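Record passed on underneath.
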Amino acid sequence: MRNNLANSWKVYAGFAIAAIVLFAIAPAMLSDFRLNQLGKYLCFGIVAVGIGLAWGRGGMLTLGQGVFFGLGAYMMAMHLKIADAELRGQDVPDFMQTAGLTELPGYWVPFTSPVVTIVGIVVLPVLVAVVLGLGVFKRKVKGAYFAILSQALVAAFATLLIGQQKTTGGSNGLNYFRSFFGLALNDPANRRLLFFITAATLLIIVAITRQIMYSRYGELLVAVRDQEERVRFLGYDPANVKVVAYAVAALFASIAGALFVPIVGIVSPNDIGVVPSIAFLIGVAIGGRTTLLGPVLGAIAVAWAQTSLSENFPSGWTYAQGLIFILVVGFFPAGLAGLGAVARRRKKRSDTHPSATSDIATITTDAGTVPAEGAKTP
């Protein structure tokens, strides 16, 4: 009981510290530009939380999170472009006018409504993940085969977007957003509000994920990862367990994509393709995929390093990123967050088994040092 109470206080303290950093220290110390960059990194952290749940706890190597990130991002971008066109008194967005279109394509029309847009961001990626997950996991596809399949899916999605030049902007994507649900994006106060929304969303998602991890379902998910056949023998369907985690990860990625668009001001196939999907995974691996905060901190650190180092070494960052990933996977498979756990285990072993042991155990008495009972003598 006392341990549970202590752990609860640690969790509350951790969330309080994170809230102070995000809502007080960061806005006070960072410029508007750097704060906007941090908001972008937090979006990547939201994606990483879902990957940590699906991959770290469920053993599903999700190399295709760019699909769900892109779905949320493009749905939000479509609504923002329609809203901007309405502010200018036009029927279609500017890039469609350049392409010669005079009316919205059929699949754009629902996103004229902000309510439908929000519902779509939440529901559509989950439906896609459920359908895909049932089709894959029911056939017992896992491991490298699932990773290749998910990566092929994201490559196909990016190619599809590039081919729709007139309706999705093609390789240029959608950009130059002026407003976000009635808020002018060129106003620094509104951009700070957008950062606060993103930070609050990240904290809420981390809290939800913690509840999932330490629930009965979370234990079952880990059991499926480690002993899938034994779980099936106990009467559970591992496919259904995996689908739930995969759908939750898809939901988080979609929400992150929707927040990414107004923060960055652009979304294109380059933001959701194979390379970004792998970058999401690298951040999670470096931070520690089996932990709660490791994926978030790893994703933010990798994104920050990419921005900082690519400014000075534009051609060398990709090699550095690959090298870091190889080092972590090869020598620190639990990620940087796992180093603390390793240190604690070693300390516990040293406390339990003192290092001052030898072949001849001794006891110090008033008469001197004599062999202990049961010890071997020369």
